Amino acid sequence: MQAVSTDLPGVMILEPKVFDDPRGFFFESFNARRFAETTGLQCVFVQDNHSRSQRGVLRGLHYQVQQTQGKLMRVITGQVYDVAVDLRRSSPTFGRWVGVHLSAENNRQLWVPEGFAHGFVVLSEFAEVLYKTTDYYTPEHERCIRWDDPTLAIDWPLDGAPQLSAKDQAGLSFADAPVFP
């Protein structure tokens, strides 16, 4: 596994070693020892999530204000554009975002640390996303920032308006959203 830095310190792209042959391929999607060696992080993942969405579905920008979650994202079918936004007021990159294409073909994973909002949009006919979290989902602590907030100015690769859940339609502006110290 190789870690590739992004423009946001702490947010990393992880590229596994893939073994291809005429029968198909094999790779370790997660190995705690290699994750720690590669990233320098000692994480305990407590929950695995699996979502399936069709083209144009945008999920996010989500985060929890308590029981914060680090997320290790990967795509097993299709392609998404995955975004992390720094919500740590004390960070020099506060309010900045990074976007990464994740797909079943490139096998990349995105590590989104605690203190970041997260979202993705589906670029293929449909996509299945698997992700690990470092804390449990708690709806009472979940918050959502608008995907199209003008302050963040995320350059989503969209053809037209995205499909949003009611929760995401009601997202707060970045200026009104609670952030971290």
From TrEMBL:
GO terms for molecular function: dTDP-4-dehydrorhamnose 3,5-epimerase activity. Pathway: Carbohydrate biosynthesis; dTDP-L-rhamnose biosynthesis. Its EC number is 5.1.3.13. The record marks 137 as: Participates in a stacking interaction with the thymidine ring of dTDP-4-oxo-6-deoxyglucose. The keyword Glycoprotein does not apply. Keywords: Isomerase. It is an enzyme of class 5 (isomerase). It catalyses: dTDP-4-dehydro-6-deoxy-alpha-D-glucose = dTDP-4-dehydro-beta-L-rhamnose. The active site is at 62 (proton acceptor), 131 (proton donor). InterPro entries: RmlC-like, RmlC-like_jellyroll, RmlC_Cupin_sf. GO terms for biological process: dTDP-rhamnose biosynthetic process; polysaccharide biosynthetic process. Homodimer. Belongs to the dTDP-4-dehydrorhamnose 3,5-epimerase family. This is dTDP-4-dehydrorhamnose 3,5-epimerase. It comes from Pseudomonas leptonychotis.
